[in-house]
Amino acid sequence: MKNKGKFWLALVIFSLVGQIAWVVENMYFNVFIYKMFHASAADISFMVAASAVAAAVTTILIGAVSDRIGRRKIFMCLGYILWGISIIAFALVRLDVLSEVFGMTANAAAAAVTIVIILDCVMTFFGSSANDAAYNAWLTDMTDQTNRGRAEGINSMMPLVAILVVFGGFMGFDLDKAESWTAIYIIIGGVVLAIGVLGFFIVDEPAAQKPDELGLFGTIVYGLRPKVIKTNPKLYFTLLAFIVFNISIQIFMPYLIIYYEKSLGIANYVLIMAPAIIAAAVVTALYGKFIDRFGFFRSVFPSLGMLMLGYVLLFVFPGVVKCVGTAMMIPVFIGSLLMLSGFLTGMAVFGAKIRNDTPLKMAGRFQGLRIIAQVLVPGVVGPAIGAAVLKNAETITNSDGTTSFLPNNSIFLAAFIAAFALAAGLAVYRAAAKKREA
Hints:
This protein has helices at residues 4-37, 41-69, 73-88, 95-102, 105-142, 148-169, 178-202, 215-220, 226-231, 233-252, 256-263, 270-294, 297-321, 329-357, 363-389, 410-437; strands at residues 395-397, 403-405. It is mostly helical. It has a single domain (4-437), classed as MFS general substrate transporter like domains (Growth Hormone, Chain: A). The chain has a two-stranded antiparallel sheet with strand order 1-2. A hairpin with a 5-residue loop joins strand 1 and strand 2 (403-405). The chain is globular and about 60 Å long. Mean pLDDT is 84; it is low at 320-324.
């Protein structure tokens, strides 16, 4: 690593800004179509699933292409520029404009949901090319087993820092007004675009690797070959466990903000999320050294413990103390802190393990498998479980006569069951591994 300062600067900037863009997609698009176009839980689930498919296909393709070319920087920088432009395009999706084309408000709202889903897939193509494929392959190339825990600690805390930046930056915006969303998309898109330009000056990368003889198609399907799976059993077991971990997260995450604001009636939910995010981010950054020192198994169980305890508090306390008003915010804050800490430290643990087990000089072609485990399968299965759990959820009537669903705390029970199954599976695997070694 020629210039450590530039590496850490590029890591922080590209990771943070990339996660800010993903926050807008993963958490705010749901709120956007819920508030502006009265989307259902099924609409939200379908949008998350479609985006997950787009992310997986893109990452598999672009990751392999970047391996063949032996370069990451051009995909990162140009990708961020196009990513920013695609985010700005969402500013054009407005009900007042679409009503002139589709007539009745209900028709315009339905059309808007469809347009947002399509644009989301387009945006995901550019974002996954730049971030999921190129940036993550670059990060693997630029680190090794001596510093991956620290790098993943920083990288994995960025989703929460990004949430804090977005919440804090747009706290004064009225999200019930279309003009607020227009401003958000222009600002976020502009920042992502600018970082893409800056990247041409601050991103270093190793010398281009000579491509192997597999060819493009062979590189794309490399990670799916039975021989490769047999040769790298630890990597594929970790990916399987990572799928279950992310399913647990995706059961509740698409509905989290709506749950805080609409179901619990906490209009100033940022006051809960902000300090919880700051504390969880600090925990995650410090946890990276713990991962480097103690390894996967001694790091993953504490993370899962925090995650599950957070689920328990978020499931139990709102119903118990709802009658006492603001006192509900205390257990909700503690539950949110534990849940977020478990989520982010877990991401760091799994991220470092996957990078450590990835074959050398093949980071690009394995990013597709990582995104399948992190986004595709969880993005389809998790929200579908959440939607099924919320199938008979309470509904409210909006001012225009339409109805909207209210998420309930059952999503945390379902998420707990998935996390508990993961912890049990890891414990059995570890015990079997120790028995084989004895």
